[in-house]
Amino acid sequence: MTETKIYEAYNLLLKSFGRQGWWPRFDNNRFIYNKDFKNSKPSEDEAFVISISAILAQNTNWKNVEKAVINLNKENLLSKEALLKIDVGKLAGLIKPAGYFNQKAKKIKEFLKFNKEISRENLLEIWGVGEETADSILLYAYNFPIFVIDAYTKRIFNRIGFKLKNYKEFQELFHKNLVKDYKLFNEYHALLVELAKRNCRKVPICGNCPLNQVCEKLI
DNA sequence: CCCCAGGCCGCGC
DNA sequence: GCGCGGCATGGG
Q1: How many CB atoms are closer than 10 A to CB A44?
Q2: CATH 1.10.1670 domain residues, chain A
Q3: pLDDT tens, position by position, for chain A (219 residues)?
Q4: Which residue places its CA closest to the C1' of nucleotide C9?
Q5: Where in chain A is the domain with CATH 1.10.340.30?
Q6: CATH architecture assignment, domain A2-19+146-214
Q7: pTM higher than 0.70, yes or no?
Q8: Residue nearest to nucleotide B3 (CA to C1')
Q9: How far, in Å, is the CA of A59 from the C1' of nucleotide B5?
Q10: Which CATH class is domain A42-141?
Q11: Do residues A142 and A47 lie in contact, with contact meaning Cβ atoms separated by under 8 Å?
């Protein structure tokens, strides 16, 4: 049964990897994972940094995102007011380590203009914010119970045996078969990212995969 | 040298 | 609506 399998996969991942503590909070010039999972709602300042880092993380290694955020922090630029004051070229130079720096500088500038109510529909109107970035902001910065789908999620669940294609289909799979609990969605997505890094890579390493008992291995 | 990374946009069809 | 090229640094 689909529902059982999705919960089972979650429990296996959690047992195997433990809590991931996403989204890491930026404090004292470094990112910290909340492994003890206090899970308090991020402050407005924290939500802003999460949102900016979600844009920087697009198709980019997280370590490079950290470098870019540290560059911004050293210039005291981790606030909407401060970022509004600098020009897009200067911003691009500071976020260089995150890659696509010209595009991302423009995307951040567009995000700074956003002044509507936080909702999926409104976030998607921002140039540079697509479905995954919008959902990441909603879930991790504002604790909306919205499941984040990324390339890893698609890869993993296609291998396990769900033959789905687009973002919407994958998201419905989780929304229809899990209780809408932001803590569950938070942890599940983070665990999937970890699985993709350790085992379910493009060329998979299946030997010690925690999901072997629920995977069809149709590779 | 290669490939990949916590995607998105603009375009052609 | 779908596929594809462009965007780009840093690590393995």
Answers
A1: 10
A2: 2-19+146-214
A3: 787 899 999 999 999 999 999 999 999 999 999 875 566 789 999 999 999 999 999 999 999 999 999 999 999 999 999 999 999 999 999 999 999 999 999 999 999 999 999 999 999 999 999 999 999 999 999 999 999 999 999 999 999 999 898 999 999 999 999 999 999 999 999 999 999 999 999 999 999 999 999 998 755
A4: A99
A5: 42-141
A6: Orthogonal Bundle (1.10)
A7: yes
A8: A202
A9: 6
A10: mainly alpha
A11: yes
